[in-house]
Amino acid sequence: MRLRSHLLLLSVATAAPVLALAVVIAFLVVKQERDTLRDGAVDRVVAVMSGIDAELRGSIATLRALAASANLEKGELAAFHSEAERILKAHPDWLDYSLNHADGTRLATSLRAGTQVQLADPESFELAVRNGEPVVGALARWDEKGWGVPLRMPVLEDGLTRYVLTVVLKPDAFADLLRAQRLPEGWVVAIADRNGVIVGRIPPVPPGTQATQGWQEALKRSPQGWYRGRTLEGRETYTPYATSDLTGWALGIAMPAEQVDSAAWRSLWLVLIMVLLASGIAVGLALLIGGRIAKPIAELAAGSFPAHTRIDEIRALSAAVREKQELAEREKAALQASDRAKDEFLAMLSHELRNPLAALTTAAHVLKLAGPNEAAAVHARAVVDRQTKHMARLVGDLLDISRVAMGKVALERERFNLAESAGNVLNTWRASGRVERHRVLQDLKPAWVDADRARIEQILSNLLDNAVKFTPAGKQIAVRVAQEGEDAVLLVRDEGAGLAPGSAERMFDLFVQGERGLDRAAGGLGIGLALVKRLTEMHGGSVAAASAGAGRGATFTVRLPAVLPPAQREKAASPLVLAPRKVLIVEDNDDARHMLHQALEFSGHDVREARDGTSGLALAAEARPDVALIDIGLPDLDGYEVARRLRAAPGGRRMGLIAITGYGQAEDQRRAYEAGFDAHLTKPVAPERLKQVMAGLQ
Predict the structure, then answer these.
(1) With the C-alpha atoms ordered 129, 134, 138, 139, is the resulting torsion angle positive or negative?
(2) Greater pLDDT, 82 or 116
(3) Where are the beta strands (DSSP E) in 506-593?
């Protein structure tokens, strides 16, 4: 095949999936339009049926009031008859009334004296006597006045039906309700009673006419739905229908099939024509452009360079071929290096995650077997605490280096004493036992900086972590803070493994680590020092590493711009005191929810929990908590929607809302505050941090 044929096939192959997709979309559009029309029609049927039920409920209420007449209770039927006649005249839609004994004997009626009428629709009469509840009967012949719908109201005495009070509704009243819907030309609307007899219809039919066989079969399949069939006049229609729970009657609106189908098919043909037109244009352009490409390439394949071509790539092809081999070799070497780096990083990551997971698994097993106060259990709990913090630091470093690399870290600057901040970090490390195997010396002199306190403490923590990893037990780690000229200097010196000559600068590159054996006892992913460098540079500072050689320790020096101290120091914060609160936890992760529940109960709080948004809202309405801790990623409603609904509920403005989630970007925080949250905490949340935030909501 020639190149031009290949280009044509390329254009056809490119257009074919688009054409197929367009056809599928077109048919989906047809289905969507038909479904939309169907859903709207079903909703309209339900609304009309609700209106008819409302009218019937009004008549039932009036009839119930008449049945409670004192005259009827006293047995004064003449007075009751006069009262019933007045009410009958006030309701032009009522054809007649009658009062029958429970055995069917007629006691009073609006018919003229001497008229003998057989009891119409005895089934509804017997149902009212048996159940003692109002019954809307079926369309029936009602003496010489024509057709009517009996509405039965039982009159009870000592829990038993003594009388049945009946009014007869005119079918024309239902036709008027249907006529008020103002349906489009050619549409048919009808009401059928529980026996399938048409009570009212637009256009009208003679009384007693049976509904179409198709409609009756559809009603047997489902009390509400949509079917295609024919009207009594034989016209093809789509009919949505619904059945009333009150009467058992059905309402249907028959729409001409050609009206329903024509709009959808017009959309289908329009899409198909546009796709075919676009495909034709694409093929034509492919043929035109293909000729311009194929001709100079054919000349080049024949061994001669084209004299006239506007394609720069063909003119550069000769030079590219000469350089191709060298470029391929360079790319091969780069790919091999990248592949090795990837394998090394995955191996490091696997090792660093498997080690704490192994310790956690074993500790969990020990906790199952040992008693709560046994030394083994105490040690296992310490292992769980230490290893979870270690894994949290690993994950935190990975996320932080990613956010820093993408420029998504915003510094929250404040003026503070670097020596005081370093002292807090060292005290925390001592309290947690992380430096108990080393001798830690500190020389902290005042040095003020304008920086993000949390990030500066992260820098020192990473440097300390690096020193602890590479310094043998019993050796010294020194931390010094001082101001030197215009710089605030933070220095961490250890007596550890030291640095190989020429490796000081590389220590701050991502995933770079010192030499170590297969045991990887020091651990780490090679991220901590890279994060130190990037965070320091974000503050306008610099970091450097120095070492006298392998085995002779290392010194890391961070320099930050110094500032003048503030004129007056703020008062020390008072000790944090958190009174017991009513707390609601909404979290779908069972382990996280149960552990948070236990931790809060140990602090004296009254805790309730829910695993999804719907049950959380119900529990909040019942328990009225002081604070709600809500996860964002819930299985039904998301946490934002739960917060909005809690704020909108009565008393919701007084409730403290805290988002506890794995979504920690700035956009996630913005959405949380807009939804009504008071605070946004990213998992895992330290208990001290949660206590601090909850105390701020008091």
Answers:
(1) positive
(2) 82
(3) 542-546, 554-561, 582-586
Binned at pLDDT 50, 70 and 90, residue 4 comes out as low
Distances from the Cα of 334 to the Cαs of 277, 280, 327, 506, in angstroms? 47, 45, 10, 19
| The predicted structure's pLDDT at residue 351 | 52
Residue with tokens 């989630």: 661
Token digits for 363? 């500790």
User: Which whole-number Å values give the CA distances from 79 to 61, 74, 108, 167, 698, in the listed order?
Assistant: 21, 10, 11, 18, 70
pLDDT computed for residue 549 by the predictor: 81
Cβ–Cβ under 8 Å, residues 224 and 241: yes
Torsion sign, CA atoms 397, 436, 460, 472: negative
Angle at CA of residue 394, ends 468 and 423, nearest 5°? 45
Reply yes or no on whether the pLDDT at 149 is more than 50. Answer: yes
User: Does the structure show a pLDDT above 50 at 612?
Assistant: yes
Q: Model pTM? A: 0.39
> Phi, psi (5° rounding) for residue 393?
-65, -40
Better-scored residue on pLDDT, 223 or 95:
223
Find out whether 680 and 668 touch, Cβ atoms under 8 Å: yes
**Residues in contact with 299: Cβ distance below 8 Å, sequence separation at least 6, in sequence order:** 305, 306
Phi, psi of 99, deg, nearest 5: -120, 120
Half-sphere exposure of residue 36: CA atoms within 13 angstroms, side-chain side: 9
* HEC sequence for 357-420: HHHHHHHHHHHHHCCCCCHHHHHHHHHHHHHHHHHHHHHHHHHHHHHHHCCCCCCCEEEEEHHH
Q: For residues 252 and 241, is the Cβ–Cβ distance under 8 A? A: yes
d(CA 405, CA 410): 12
pLDDT digits (tens, 9 = 90+) for 228-275: 999 988 899 999 999 998 888 999 999 888 877 776 677 677 777 877
Separation of CA 214 from chain center: 42
Query: How far is 455 from 154, CA to CA, in rounded Å?
Result: 80
pLDDT, position 488? 95
Taking the alpha carbons at both ends of the chain, their separation in whole angstroms is: 80
Nearest-angstrom CA–CA distance, 650 and 556: 57
Write down the pLDDT at residue 571. 46
